[in-house]
Amino acid sequence: MHVPKDRETKMNKQLIALETALGQSTIEQIKEPFMLERGVELYLKRDDLLHPIISGNKWRKLKYILDHALSCGTHTLISMGGAYSNHLHALAYTGKILGIKTVGMIRGEQPQNLNATLKDLQQWGMQLHFVSRSEYRQLREYKQFDSLPKLKKGEYWLPEGGAVELALQGVAELLDEIDMDYDCLCVPCGTATTLAGLICAAPQNKQVLGFSALKGAGFLIDDINCLIKYSSCHNNEWFVHLDYHFGGFAKQNSELLQFIKQFEEKHLIPLEPIYTGKMLYGIYDLIQQGYFKAGQKIIALHTGGLQGNRGAFNA
Ligand SMILES: Cc1ncc(COP(=O)(O)O)c(C=O)c1O
For the whole prediction, is pTM greater than 0.85? Predict the structure, then answer.
């Protein structure tokens, strides 16, 4: 990935080296006859191509958090996630590259056999702590890098999914890579941090839409408002679609899986059914319903996370 000169001078050298080695996130048009009929164009920004592990929104969100952590003299990064967490997967790998210890608080009981994601975490040196669901909920309360109780000197806390304001800066940079005209940006949502980054950085008069991967995620609106409250947004119109969760986080049905299979076969782009697959299903549905006006151009973000496919069918 090309790193602009002004960024190079400010950032940690190890992170610059990492970013320079990343792949290029291209923008590809997704063509379907019904889109032509509706006069709507859909493009996919392929952040999944950035890296096989630190892919999609992972690098975008982690970049400035890691820069801050390194500038604070951090020797250990501590974070939390589920047993198939893309966030912990990217963090463990990055920690190994940067020579920083990592600790992962994993939701639920320790399984007898570690799944492929957890094995990777362990192999990359992450210390795994399995915590009960109630302890996990408690951890969600600690939203700042220094807020985890009993944190020792040199330890740095990252809330679930890297949901802190610093993550928004890295997400914002992906907009600099878009060199075409567009009307609407779409992104899948877990914590909605990536969406918040796009809301803040999108140029004026763009619509920014999130697609929640979770059921009953109305709380995201408050979370987003909280994340963007200190940023100078352009008052773009934004909205979170809450009805494309397919029964809840990591849940899926044959309709979704069929959609993904057909999409992959036709467009030769790999998807996963937890985030980007659900978002694209939602966008297709909305275009068919006439939600978008003729002439509109939509850019959807492929947020990567393809490693999650290893657990998507038994999560
Ligand atoms: C592949 C992928 N896409 C989308 C998301 C959702 O991102 P956010 O938590 O910023 O909404 C995640 C979770 O971080 C993810 O792993």
Answer: yes
